[in-house]
Amino acid sequence: MIRRNQWVLPVSVIVALLLGLLPLPPVIQPLRPYWLALVLAYWVIEEPDRVGLGFVFIAGVIADLLYGSLLGEQPLRLVIMTFILQRFRARLRFFPVSQQALAIGGLLLNDRIVTAALHLALGEATLPWSYWWAPLLGMLLWPLLFVLLDAVRLGKRR
C-alpha cells in the first residue's frame, strides 16, 4: 500500500510543539490546550502502526527539552494517554467525532490529574485551578483538529 502525504505526521508534531511554545498573555495561558497530546492522539487513532508508545515517548522527551519542564514528565503523561488510547482504539475509531471529543476530553482531564499527582509527589508547585479549563478547550477543538488532519493526511479525493 502506497502511503500519501507521509510528511503530515512529522510536520503536525512540529507544529504542535511550536504551538506549545507560543507565548500567550498570562490571562489566557491556563487555557492553552495540550496541542502535542491532541495531535498524537489523532495519530495513535489513525496510524497505530506508525505512532506507538516509543514515538510518543520520544516526542515527550523533545517537548520536555523545548519547554524546560521536568525531564520525563511529558513522556510519562503522553505514554499513559497513548496506552489508554491503544487499549480502546478499536471502539473509539468508530465513534462519531462528537463522541470521540468526549473521550479525548476525558483523556485530557486524566492528563491533568496525572500532572497534579506528579507535582504533588515531587513537591513542585501545583497548577492553579484555572489550568483545569484547558481539557475542556482541547475537547472542543478535537473535531476541528480531527477533520483538519484527516483532510491533509488523506488529501483531496476526486
Automatic annotation (TrEMBL):
The keyword Signal does not apply. Pfam families: MreD (PF04093). The keyword Metal-binding does not apply. GO terms for biological process: regulation of cell shape. Its main location: membrane. It is a multi-pass membrane protein. GO terms for cellular component: plasma membrane. InterPro entries: Cell_shape_determining_MreD (IPR007227), MreD_proteobac (IPR026034). Keywords: Cell inner membrane, Cell membrane, Cell shape, Membrane, Transmembrane, Transmembrane helix. It is found in: Cell inner membrane; Cell membrane. The chain crosses the membrane at residues 7-31, 51-71, 92-109, 129-149. It comes from the Bacteria. Belongs to the MreD family. Involved in formation of the rod shape of the cell. May also contribute to regulation of formation of penicillin-binding proteins. This is Rod shape-determining protein MreD.
